[in-house]
């Protein structure tokens, strides 16, 4: 949760990419990071296998949002190839 707030602050005030398309990439990572931070807390409370649910949400959020952040900050689209792995973990 706190990391997503810090990412939002950085995105709003400090992130100035050369290519404007990376702003949207950063925003996608930030939005899903915020949403899934709530699910990391709430999901295990109602899940049949709480440890697995928490682990999948944590790993999926880290991989998906982390790769969005990495692609946007480095302005290297190659990082995006890992995002579907994170998305798959979130869907699982």
What's a quick, concise take on this entry?
The protein has about 90 residues and is mainly alpha-helical.
Structure description:
It is a single chain. By secondary structure, the protein is mostly helical. It has four helices and no strands. The radius of gyration is 14 Å and the shape is flat.
Rounded to an integer in angstroms, the radius of gyration calculated over CA atoms is: 14 Å
Give the quaternary arrangement of the chains: single chain
Beta fraction: under 5%
Structural class computed from helices and strand pairing: mainly alpha
Summed up, the helix count is 4
SSE map:
Blueprint: H1 2-13, H2 21-46, H3 50-74, H4 83-91
Helix pairs in contact: 1-2, 2-3, 3-4
Primary descriptors:
4 helices; mainly alpha; 92 residues; 0% strand
């Amino acid at each position: 949760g706190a990391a997503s707030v810090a990412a939002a602050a950085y995105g709003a005030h400090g992130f100035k990419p050369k290519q404007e398309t990376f702003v949207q990439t950063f925003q996608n990572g930030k939005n899903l990071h915020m949403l899934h931070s709530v699910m990391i807390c709430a999901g295990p409370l109602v899940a049949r296998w709480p440890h697995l649910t928490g682990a999948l949400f944590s790993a999926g959020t880290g991989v998906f949002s982390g790769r969005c952040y990495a692609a946007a900050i480095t302005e290297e689209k190659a990082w995006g190839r890992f995002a579907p792995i994170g998305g798959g973990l979130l869907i699982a």
